[in-house]
Amino acid sequence: MSPLRLxxxxxxxxxxxxxxxxxxxxxxxxxxxxxxxxxxxRIVSGSLVLGILLLFKFRRYTLGGSWxxxxxxxxxxxxxxxAYVSLSAGTGALLLxxxxxxxxxGYGLWRGERLSRLQIIGGIAATGGxxxxxxxxxxxxxxxxxxxxxxxxxxxxVYSLMGRRTSEPSIATAGNFIRAIPFAVIMHLxxxxxxxxxxxxxxxxxxxxxxxxxxxxxxxxAVLPALPASRAxxxxxxxxxxxxxxGMLFLNEAVTLRFGxxxxxxxxxxxxxxxxxxxSKHAE
Length: 284
What we know:
This protein has eleven helices and no strands. By secondary structure, the protein is mostly helical. It has one domain (3-283).
């Protein structure tokens, strides 16, 4: 994969993940839909879109993926929905991406990756900027909600790492979404929700599943094989920033000096991390 194509696909993936955060945040926080219904509709709509795309591409379909990867996908989607019932958007994003980063970098280090001094500085700068953006003015999160969101981040990290080993990412992604449907159905039946689901809530869930989740994960699977686990983890730190920008553009959130400085720290840290990785490769 050429550097330009890798950059474009990675940017598109991060934008999809940011859009997913906005859709989930609005649907759940405003009470348009309950978490288990949102999760079910999100997974089913993602499965339908990915299945249709595969039929157009291959004229046939073989169920790919694995039940373990599907369980990780479902675990992320369900935990993400339930955590946002009690957590604020900023706290949830911080906990989610912090857990993803720790999972993927931890795996990379366990596999033998070593971080240079510049990479460590970049990681500290990016993490510090994200914490500075998210924490001020946010109350201490409820323990249960925080633990649920951390588990969502771990599931996302595990799912992303498993995607690095697949030879047909689109087939694997569609298969994992389809395999995740029974998990979502069982959870929905066990929850027995009495909350009324609005048409707007359904629309948010469909958009989250079909566009931001289904297509987003297909793109993520496509770029992951070209990204070391530690670099992939750092790039994902840009998603809360992109989500915040989307909130300002579409949800009329205020632009502050603190946000601007924190954005520079996060994106600058990510750039330093990636550039130092390239320099270390050239030095070899």
